[in-house]
Write a structure and sequence with these properties.
This protein is mostly helical. The chain is built from 3 helices and 2 strands. It has one domain: Arc Repressor Mutant, subunit A (Orthogonal Bundle), CATH 1.10.10. It has a two-stranded antiparallel ribbon with strand order 1-2. The longest helix is centred in the N-terminal third of the chain and has 18 residues.
Length: 63
């Protein structure tokens, strides 16, 4: 039987890969919403805003 830490790591990797594969369920493109920009499904929040905020946070943390 594999060590407990290795099993937990494998479970975390599996969950992360499931989340990555499901991005199509969370992002939509509709020409009638936000001029066709990719948005978080069910909202009018462009993915670009989320990515910009994440990028800004990462540069702020490095300073």
């Amino acid at each position: 039987m594999p060590p407990l830490a290795a099993t937990n790591c494998a479970i975390m990797i599996k969950r992360a890969s499931d989340d990555i594969m499901n991005w199509r369920e969370r992002i939509m493109v509709d020409p009638e919403i936000c001029h066709g920009q990719a948005c978080i499904k069910g909202t009018r929040i462009p993915v670009s805003v989320i990515m910009d905020n994440l990028a800004e946070a990462s540069t702020t943390q490095r300073s």
